[in-house]
Amino acid sequence: MEELRELYQQIILDHNKSPKNYGKMVNCTHASEGYNPLCGDRIKIYAKVENGVIEDIKFEGEGCAIAKASGSIMTALLKGKTVAEAQQLFEEFQHLITSDVRSNVDTEKLGKLAVFAGVREFPTRVKCAGLAWHTVKAAIEKKDELVTTE
Amino acid sequence: METTALKKEAVHTPTGRQFAHFDVEKIRADFPILHRPVYGKPLAYLDNAATTQKPLAVIEAIRHYYSAENANIHRGVYHLSEVATRKYEGARKTVKNFLNAASEREIVFTAGTTDSINLVAAAYGRKFIKAGDEIILSHMEHHSNIVPWQMLCEETGAKLRVIPINDRGELIFEEYEKLLNERTRLVAIVYVSNSLGTINPVKDIIELAHQGNVPVLVDGAQAISHLKVNVQELDCDFFALSGHKVFGPTGVGVLYAKENILERMNPYRGGGDMIRSVKFEKTVYAELPHRFEAGTPHIAGVVGLAKALEYVESVGLEAIAAHEKALLEYGQEALSTLKKLKLIGTARKKTGVISFVIEGIHPHDIGTWVDRQGVAIRAGHHCTQPVMDRYGVPSTCRASLAMYNRKEDFDTLIAALHDIIKVFD
């Protein structure tokens, strides 16, 4: 039960219920679609990038609470960041969710992202947390193909 | 005698909830894995449509084969090879009797249901199905009974026709009647749906197809551990099954096919064991069914499968069906009391498969949550994406039964569901 509550923290449940930046964007400059073949979940990311800065970002799709909360928290975090900063955050997030479960989490550095430390206890769910991030990376790097978690 | 679970007198009529008459604890005692805890909780294994657990008799049969009998078959003149060959061919007889096939020549060992269907698509389909011909499937097929036919269609220019299903998850028989025509060359139909539990009226389907001389393949993967199958009575032309869905090992399965059809088919794979003589000018193929079993087969798997079928026989499929029916009713009723829960697949004739969704909670979250309480259910599309599309859901949760399940498994699941609904509310 403890691990479950660690995974499904209130903040994750709240973002799942009322995700931020959820929906389509018509005038986006970058877009990408991510797919998790394990569960059939799909996520679309739209971004408006001007002069190397992510001016606006949205996501939509079907996903579990972890995937949806990840998309919500991620978009809130990336808005106003430069592409280089976004890539840096991607690396930090990847490192967090794939790190050893016993290793310490730098909550100060990670801020809101630290709530995803709980997925490390659930190897089958790491991909759920990573889906939005992989998709945004593909979008801002202008890769047009479907991104999968495989 | 191996560890047989039930005495014959325990068989009873398939009505009502007769938990008391079916000694489920005695059966459970034969399955070692059911007694290992998961996350410190007793295991409630409810993913039997994905794979079933193995009784000790099967595990022991495989261990014994490798410890005392292992050799290649149909080759050596030495003692061990004779023993192994006898075991392997004896298993064929067990399968023949289990399915009530007319002859052992009609029993081909394969790697599983998928392999069996691919065998028919390659060895029958490529020879007899041409451009403009039609193959009829249903909307509730597993991907393994869709993709091989799609590949064949791409290769030959034939077309797939799909029988639709209603909201309960039942085939619309009148639509099937309309789809059958002079271009139909094959009907490939699932006996029991793995994601909905629906039992299809395969006998009627076959009868109608035969009126137009159309052969029928039955995907029996989900039927074999729940229903008594009699291929001669069904009059099916092909019947495919997997060992691991009927308490046997993975990597082994069966294709039953009528002898006169097998005779006319192309060989499947070329290699050793499927030949009578090989010259660079010409090869003469072996007799049935060996012509379709190239290479050294999964001998230990076949031995294990035969033991699994003997085990099922010893319990009795009627008794199993009655027990599972009572459990299914119990589970469906109990789940229906949960708010926001919707059952997917409410056919009037179904086996112990309960697919469901809960509004506002993704099936993966449910799967993870109940797992920590020791409950193993499947969350996903169950390799039936067309079914998911039909119901407008990307995935469902699925609890699926076997003979060793009991009320307590559902009680644990339902308690866990209550918890997650509360937390996610």
Structure characteristics:
heterodimer, A: 150 residues, alpha+beta, Sufe protein. Chain: A, four-stranded mixed beta sheet, 6 helices, 42% helix, B: 425 residues, alpha/beta, Aspartate Aminotransferase, domain 1, Aspartate Aminotransferase, domain 2, seven-stranded mixed beta sheet, four-stranded antiparallel beta sheet, 15% strand, disordered N terminus
Overview of this structure, please?
The complex is a heterodimer of chains A (150) and B (425). Chain A has 150 residues and is an alpha+beta fold. Chain A has a single domain (2-143), classed as Sufe protein. Chain: A (Alpha-Beta Complex). Helices cover 42% and strands 19% of the residues of chain A. Chain A contains 6 helices and 4 strands; from the N terminus they run ααβββααααβ. In chain A, strands 3-2-1-4 form a 4-stranded mixed beta sheet, covered by helices on one side. In chain A, strand 1 (30-36) and strand 2 form a beta hairpin. In chain A, helix 2 (10-17) packs across helix 3 (65-78), helix 3 runs parallel beside helix 6 (126-140) and helix 4 packs antiparallel against helix 6. The model of chain A has no long low-confidence stretch (mean pLDDT 90). With 425 residues, chain B is α/β, with parallel strands linked by helices. Chain B folds into 2 domains: 14-54 and 316-420, Aspartate Aminotransferase, domain 1 (Alpha-Beta Complex); 60-313, Type I PLP-dependent aspartate aminotransferase-like (Major domain) (Aspartate Aminotransferase, domain 2), CATH 3.40.640. Chain B is 39% helix and 15% strand. Chain B contains 14 helices and 15 strands. Chain B has helices at residues 24-29, 56-69, 79-99, 113-128, 147-156, 173-179, 202-211, 231-234, 259-264, 299-315, 317-336, 363-371, 385-391, 407-424; strands at residues 44-45, 107-110, 134-138, 159-163, 184-190, 216-219, 238-242, 253-257, 275-278, 283-285, 341-344, 353-358, 375-376, 378-380, 396-400. In chain B, strands 2-8-7-6-5-3-4 form a 7-stranded mixed beta sheet, sandwiched between helices. A 4-stranded antiparallel beta sheet of chain B has the order 11-12-15-14, covered by helices on one side. In chain B, strands 1-13 form a two-stranded parallel ribbon. The model of chain B is unreliable at 1-20 (pLDDT under 50). Classes of the chains: A alpha+beta (150), B alpha/beta (425). Chain A binds chain B through residues 1, 3-4, 7-8, 13, 16-17, 38-42, 62-66, 68, 122, 124-125, 128, and chain B through 360-365, 368-369, 372, 379-381, 385, 388, 394-395, 423-424.
